[in-house]
Amino acid sequence: MEQTFIMIKPDGVQRGLVSEIMGRFEKKGFFMKGLKLQSVERSFAEKHYADLSSKPFFSGLVDYIISGPVVAMIWEGKNVVTTCRKIIGATNPSDAAPGTIRGDFAVEIGRNVVHGSDSVESARKEIALWFPEAPINFESSIHSWIYE
Ligand code: UDP
Ligand code: MG
């Protein structure tokens, strides 16, 4: 089954939005397969955002991600990568539709509370970076109430 990497950024943690954000993926019918509160170092944040290293906002972005603990998660389900991006909403909260996480809880692009992998390939890389330990394999007892 497809997996994605979701991170609640330091502003989401500090603002007490953790359960609200997790609840959106949980209530949708996706399954949490990894979860940890973590403070990351500059070099780790730079690795996570390596694809953006040439962008003018890169150092500010790294400062933001290391400004406090983040909640790192693996979520699993059918089309989970694309669907979680839709649940999260547009990168710039000004463009994010009401009902999306960024549309409901964020104002500035540099304080947009949550990260979600943008493709199955990035998800694979990000999960390997953030969760090098052995995966936890289990099937939820409500699986057949969500999946045909
Ligand atoms: N970002 C920013 N300024 C920009 C574009 C992006 O501060 O002009 C930040 C923003 O927090 C965004 C992150 O960099 O979430 C990663 O950018 P990306 O284009 O990958 O957006 P995302 O995949 O998070 O929607
Ligand atoms: Mg991205």
UniProtKB/TrEMBL annotation:
Cited SUPFAM superfamilies: Nucleoside diphosphate kinase, NDK
Enzyme class: transferase
Keywords per UniProt: ATP-binding, Kinase, Nucleotide-binding, Transferase
GO BP annotation list: CTP biosynthetic process; GTP biosynthetic process; response to hydrogen peroxide; UTP biosynthetic process
Annotated EC: 2.7.4.6
Single annotated GO MF: ATP binding
Gene3D superfamilies on file: Nucleoside diphosphate kinase-like domain
Positions that bind ATP: 9, 57, 85, 91, 102, 112
Source organism, top-level taxon: Eukaryota
Required co-factors: Mg(2+)
Start and end residues of each Nucleoside diphosphate kinase-like domain: 1-138
A Pfam family it matches: NDK
InterPro entries, per the entry: NDK-like_dom, NDK-like_dom_sf, Nucleoside_diP_kinase, Nucleoside_diP_kinase_AS
Reaction catalysis annotation: a 2'-deoxyribonucleoside 5'-diphosphate + ATP = a 2'-deoxyribonucleoside 5'-triphosphate + ADP; a ribonucleoside 5'-diphosphate + ATP = a ribonucleoside 5'-triphosphate + ADP
Catalytic machinery residues: 115
UniProt record similarity statement: Belongs to the NDK family.
Protein name listed in UniProt: Nucleoside diphosphate kinase
Native source organism of the sequence: Carpinus fangiana
